[in-house]
Amino acid sequence: MNVTRVKKLARLLAELLVLAAIYLLGCQLALWLAWPIPGGVLGLALLLLVFALGWVKPAALQRGAGLLMAEMLLFFIPALMSLLDYGGLLRHEGWRILVVIAVSTLLVMLVTAFTVEWVCRWRLAHEK
Asked: Does residue 35 sit in helix, strand or coil?
């Protein structure tokens, strides 16, 4: 391997370690505080705080986050396989589950779109 590839691999591993550390810190906070919020959500809040405070620039974690996003389907395979154990539940309540999934997905998309729009307008107004 040449030096450039080793550096890129080391950088990727460092980014993944930072993201994993933030996730684990979020999980630990959820345990310590006994909050009913998943550790992953607290980890995302911590990541947002780290970005907002300027301690880390989002571009510094871009390669590691990109890898995780590209392989996201692998994280859902165990959850999808567990559905095989609940065939009866899905037959009886499946339509309700699908409605909840559809509505919540739509709400997340709308909130994200409005938030991005608001942030873009705010930045344009304050950059002048």
From this structure: coil
Find the helix packing angle between 3-33 and 62-70, rounded to 10°. 80
pTM (whole model) above 0.85: no
For residues 8 and 12, what is the distance between their CA atoms, to the nearest angstrom? Answer: 6
Burial (CB count within 10 angstroms: exposed 0-12, middle 13-18, buried 19+), residue 61: buried
Q: Tens-digit pLDDT profile for the chain (128 aa)? A: 688 888 888 888 999 999 999 999 999 999 999 888 888 889 989 999 998 888 988 888 888 888 888 877 777 676 666 667 777 877 888 889 889 999 999 999 999 999 999 999 988 888 86
Question: Domain boundaries in the chain?
Answer: 1-70
The end-to-end CA distance of the chain, in Å, is 48
